[in-house]
Amino acid sequence: MINRVCVCLLLHLSLSVFALAEETEDPLRPTNVSWPPVPEDQVKRYTALRTIDPIHVDGVLSEKTWKNVPRSPRFVDLIRGHQTVHNTQAAVTWDDQNLYVAFWVEDPFVTSKIRKRDDPVYTDNDVEVFIAFDNAYYEFEINPFATIYEGLFIWQSEYESAGFSKVSELDRSRPEVRSQAFNGVGYRNHPRGPRYAFLGWDFPGAVSAVAIDGTLNDNSDRDRGWTVELAFPWSGMKALSSGDQRSVPPENGDTWRMDFSRFNQFREAGPVRDSQGWAWSYHGCWDSHIPEVFPFITFSSESVEE
């Protein structure tokens, strides 16, 4: 009888622990996510207007274009889409030479730690841009130190057929070309399968800058935040657009998929609802590598209003 009681007790405890483990699975980073993680009608849309004055990339965003350009909605939590504690917004504009992106990042205590290029900036406070093409996408990250992390991701199923193997800097048969298999971060069942990640690839001619309104790594005062200014030359998108039929630069009315996000070390008081990932358009899961949930960016030949 004692043995039976012990067995029953152990079984009860085991089931309780199992149930507790299921209940305490991180609700901010769910793993059982259906496809697509976000319905298309819930993905944000934006019209990118042309510049009205020359853009000097210094991070300050003092040009008339940036002062008048429509900004994105306030970023929301990456997973659930609810409001975040600090404001983050972005904007896109363009001319015949470049695609321009700006970020306005509210942060009362601007902090950063990573200084070496291509170190894991995504573990720091950063903002990120993804540009998706038909067969590949590009990732760019930058932190308040202006440290950059970037990479090119190609769907393995399209690597040969789209002609990437014929691009010298992406030819995996060459010993100097560094690549690795990649199957997402939090969503590992993408219908298109795994990618090849080229983390040594640098966007040709890209220019970036950060300006801080406050004091970096000094929490004795309160800061306003930081701003980011980016320029991506259309001429640097040749490798990205391999096998792609789109026009580069885009034509009036063309729609691309691009993503804009912010990752931070902010910790809110419990009960915690913040995943520490914020985005222009929420993703429904802990993964930035899903082009199907990137905002729709439609390019217009009209200019920003003065």
Automatic annotation (TrEMBL):
Keyword Signal listed: yes
GO biological process entries: carbohydrate catabolic process
GO molecular function: carbohydrate binding; hydrolase activity, hydrolyzing O-glycosyl compounds
SUPFAM superfamilies from the UniProt entry: CBD9-like
Keyword Cell membrane: no
Cleaved signal peptide residues: 1-21
Descriptive protein name: Carbohydrate-binding domain-containing protein
Biological classification of the source: Bacteria, Pseudomonadati, Planctomycetota, Planctomycetia, Planctomycetales
